[in-house]
Amino acid sequence: LNTADMDAETTTNTEPMAEEEEPLFSNLDLFLFSLIVGLVIYWFMSRKKPEPIPEFKKLDTPAPTTRETSFIEKMKKTGKNIIVFYGSQTGTAEEFANRLSKDAQRYGMKGMAADPEEYDMGEMARLSEIENSLAIFCMATYGEGDPTDNAQDMYDWLQENDDEDLSGLNYTVFALGNKTYEHYNAMGKYVDKRLEELGAKRIFDLGLGDDDGNLEEDFISWREQFWPAVCEHFGVEALGDDSSIRQYELKEHTDINMNKVYSGEIGRLKSFEVQKPPFDSKNPFLAPVTLNRKLNKGGDRHLMHLELDITGSKIRYESGDHVAVFPTNDSALVNKLGQILGVDLDVVISLNNLDEESNKKHPFPCPTTYRTALTHYLDITHPPRTNVLYELAQYASDPKDQENMRKMASSSPEGKALYQSWVLEASRNILAILEDMPSLKPPVDHLCELLPRLQARYYSIASSSKVHPNSIHICAVVVEYQTKTGRTNKGVATNWLKNKLVTDNGHKSTVPMYIRKSQFRLPFKATNPVIMVGPGTGIAPFMGFIQERGWLKEQGKEVGETVMYFGCRHKNEDYIYQEELEEAEKNQVLTQLNVAFSRDQEQKVYVQHILKKNKENIWKLIHSENAHIYVCGDARNMAKDVQTALYEIAEELGSMTRTQATDYIKKLMTKGRYSQDVWS
Q1: By CB atoms within 10 Å of each CB, which of 80, 236, 376, 561 scores lowest?
Q2: Annotated binding site
Q3: Which residues are annotated as a binding site for FMN?
């Protein structure tokens, strides 16, 4: 529809009509009429009290100006020449980006960390307007080779803009991933390759960080070689200034209205008191816990099933999606930290960014108390990264302690080995480090600046919205273990969830949560057979799938074969959801239920062994009946062993070579017929 043509037509049709009739009012009449109306309006306006006018002025100039989406203008304004973009799901890539932007200062340069979601990536080509400029990309890979949520727009931009000329752009990429996953560091590799294709100049090699090994060590080794390469490229020298660089300054509030103080909210102040949809990672919904039961009948572990009520929240989910929950740290740990540092945890503070132009005004929501920060906002249970040790070293009064802390943060083989054994293998969190190094007494505000943010935890949803539209089910195993130092370490989220009783002193227990969409989906055609492999808590999404297939059958739909491969240790201890699974088999919702009890006999039996035993049926379903395969659970061993079993079945029954069999299974993945929801 061409509007220009339409306008032209309308004008030609209406003009003759205008000529035919005499105008009703002359120009003088219209002028006098307008004048009278104007005077009446003026009289009315001038009668009104002039009080509301200042109010309008206030509205006219709102305090927050439109957010600066141009990173180029921001860099020019603040004299920055290095920008570090991060694609981060769990906060690690953001942490690394902050460290690199801080490093720049030691080389006489100025850096800024940037969330690509907040800026217009179309400006990338303009970076050449800034002298000695460099873009660093710290890119994590999520799930099956996907970009993280905050890097999705950047990924789309890189894919769609073939004619972009980035020849003036200097760049380097550090990728964060995990070798146990199929698409190891796919996002970092893609950004690195794509920028080169668009003409950008790589000034240092792609760094590959493996979280299955030692991500921190990979990052340090890469960084140690990266900065000398930058110095050489730009002809600059290190300033030799190794002193600690504070990013935030402390402000203590003595007479503040407590209604203005954050008490654990993730985004908007008081968002937990006044809940407003839509709910997402910055605005979670407080879902009441309606059921919390132990699933296993015996054994020394605690497997649990929780149900969260989402009535009235407008939250929608599908089987296979993930629920993200925001846990809180154990109050006993927080109190111990307060004791050992000798601080009043209830002091109200703000940590304000020294760089006033930064988008990140505070490291966590401020103003708040130290207690709230250490409970809701900061990760106090993971072994701290080397940069934290390096910055805290100055507060150790014993020179030996100082030396060891700095050594652990270096890239020397001796330092790496010390960090590996003393921090990682001993699972020492910040509290354990402070307890075992009595000479170390850091100021609590600097510690709060350095500790990473406490992140949301993701769980595969164990229900179907077709059957439970107002309820989300979680299935999880409580993490608790002894460390080499004789301490008991507890998983933050699972222990917090375990203690979420349905009512607590007459109050409903609530869980701050939101939904993360997943690609883990039942086939579009219900007639397609499905093969589900999920030992342990890997069964979670399949409980949703089974409920959904049952619901489809009840609707009179034709449903393909539904085959389940589940594994646990002992039939009489941890065969979770046994009643539900056997009921589904009895009602022929599950056409086959195969369970491997690994420790009920001399020889260990796992899901991959039963797959191999049923190879003819598996091959028929996959090769002849277009079955979809789903694997959920441990990425390191189980998912790999299942894949190998499928290679062997294809090799034997499809008369293929190992290479052909591998290609055959990989093709199922690219076609979306082989999906994995795995973790390591």
Answers
A1: 236
A2: 88-93, 140-143, 176-185, 211, 301, 457-460, 475-477, 481, 491-494, 537, 598-599, 604-608, 641, 679
A3: 88-93, 140-143, 176-185, 211
- For residue 313, indicate whether it is catalytic: no
d(CA 62, CA 646) in angstroms, rounded, equals 61
The domain limits of the chain are: 71-234, 276-327+456-518, 328-455, 530-678
Is 460 designated active site? yes
Can you give 433-493 as a three-state secondary structure string? HHHHCCCECCCHHHHHHHCCECCCEEEEECCCCCCCCCEEEEEEECCEEECCCCCEEECHH
The model's pTM is 0.87
Catalytic option among 465, 632, 634, 675: 632
Rg (CA), the chain: 30
In the annotation, is 471 catalytic?
no
Catalytic residue among 101, 271, 319, 460: 460
Q: Which residues are annotated as a binding site for FAD?
A: 457-460, 475-477, 481, 491-494, 679
The first and second tokens of residue 351, run together, are 């940590």
- The Cα–Cα gap between 265 and 271 comes to 6
Neighbours of 29 (CB within 10 A): 11
Render pLDDT for 116-150 as a digit per residue (tens, 0 to 9): 999 999 999 999 999 999 999 999 999 889 999 99
HSE (side-chain half, CA atoms, 13 Å) at 519: 17
How does pLDDT run across 266-305, given as a tens digit for each residue?
999 999 999 999 999 999 999 999 999 999 999 999 999 9
The secondary structure of 580-595, three-state, reads: HHHHHHHCCCCCEEEE
Q: Tokens 């005499």, residue?
A: 22
Return the CATH architecture of domain 71-234.
Answer: 3-Layer(aba) Sandwich (3.40)
> If we measure between CA atoms, which residue out of 348, 301, 135 comes closest to residue 230?
135
138 is known as an active-site residue: no
Contact 593, 575 (CB under 8 A): no
Residue 165 burial (CB count, 10 A): 12
Assign a CATH topology to domain 530-678: Rossmann fold (3.40.50)
The topology under which CATH files domain 276-327+456-518 is: Elongation Factor Tu (Ef-tu); domain 3 (2.40.30)
Distance (Å, rounded) from C-alpha 523 to C-alpha 153?
27
